[in-house]
Amino acid sequence: MSKTIHFTKMHGAGNDYIYVNTLLYSIPDPSAASIAWSKPHTGIGSDGLVLIGKPKDEEKADYAMRIFNADGSEAMMCGNASRCIAKYLYEKGITDKTTIRLETLSGVKILSLHLKAGKVESVTVDMLEPAFDVKEQFTGHTPDELNSVKALSDHVLRTEDGKPKSLFVSMGNPHYVIFVDDVQHMDITTLGKLLEREKAFPQRCNIEFAQLVGEGKLRTRVWERGSGITMACGTGACATAVAAAKLGVCGRHAVIAMDGGDLDITWSPNDNHVYMTGPAAFAFEGDIELPEDK
Ligand SMILES: N[C@@H](CCC[C@H](N)C(=O)O)C(=O)O
């Protein structure tokens, strides 16, 4: 296969990734490609790399997604990328389905496309169930590591009256959501950097800082594992809405207002699944060489 790769740059609420159709172009070392191409000056510039491909289980899924952060680490799930993949597949004429089953490292996610004048205006993703059980999520770690994750997930941060104001939530990938009084003026770079690598998180962690700004509306800023500050995080928005419902900050439906736009999240009481609805957009396309082998 060619060493020149055709890519599409897309974003979901400003969370931007480079998308490659691996049915046409193979990427032998996606981690190296993500590091090289995500760089703003010498690469394309992005929050990471997303590969669209064939699912391992073709009975259960139509397509598969792999997602690499800008530092080359592979993640189990990406909410914003799953919506972009729906738009990519439909608007490039690869599928005419308006319900797509997407295989990810954290299960098959159902994408429901909402069309307007033949274009994908928004997408709802069934993000499956959130998880809170530390043992379930951190296999292969020492009891000490598990205890320290447990301590943090047991709400180390508390308000003055002792109520918890932070929660560890897994949406297929790990999130630590902290409710704050003034999210706009916080130094989320310093805190995010520290918390991402806090020893309580053996797999590192995505960190969300959230503030209730209206009924069912949470202004949220994100420090993503492996990419730093991003304009939005789909799994992070889901984790924030779930944490807010669990801690009584708001009900089971919330609008998460991120730097790059709003995501609408419902944590269904019927099936315990989290449903995320939001936009997806094309930015530009191009061709790039694979990075040299080191
Ligand atoms: N931006 C994404 C999440 C990408 C992966 C994350 N940084 C991780 O390492 O888990 C989203 O929209 O969910």
TrEMBL record:
GO molecular function, one term: diaminopimelate epimerase activity
UniProt keyword list: Amino-acid biosynthesis, Cytoplasm, Isomerase, Lysine biosynthesis
Reaction(s) catalysed by this chain's protein: (2S,6S)-2,6-diaminopimelate = meso-2,6-diaminopimelate
GO CC field: cytosol
EC number: 5.1.1.7
Superkingdom of this protein's organism: Bacteria
GO biological process: lysine biosynthetic process via diaminopimelate
This protein's pathway: Amino-acid biosynthesis; L-lysine biosynthesis via DAP pathway; DL-2,6-diaminopimelate from LL-2,6-diaminopimelate: step 1/1
Active site (UniProt): C78, C233
Uppermost EC category: isomerase
Marked site (Could be important to modulate the pK values of the two catalytic cysteine residues) residue numbers: H175, E224
Pfam families: DAP_epimerase
Annotated compartments: Cytoplasm
Binding site for substrate: N15, N69, G79, N80, N173, N206, E224, R225, G234, T235
Sequence similarity: Belongs to the diaminopimelate epimerase family.
Function: Catalyzes the stereoinversion of LL-2,6-diaminopimelate (L,L-DAP) to meso-diaminopimelate (meso-DAP), a precursor of L-lysine and an essential component of the bacterial peptidoglycan.
Subunit structure: Homodimer.
Protein name, entry field: Diaminopimelate epimerase
Organism: Hallella mizrahii
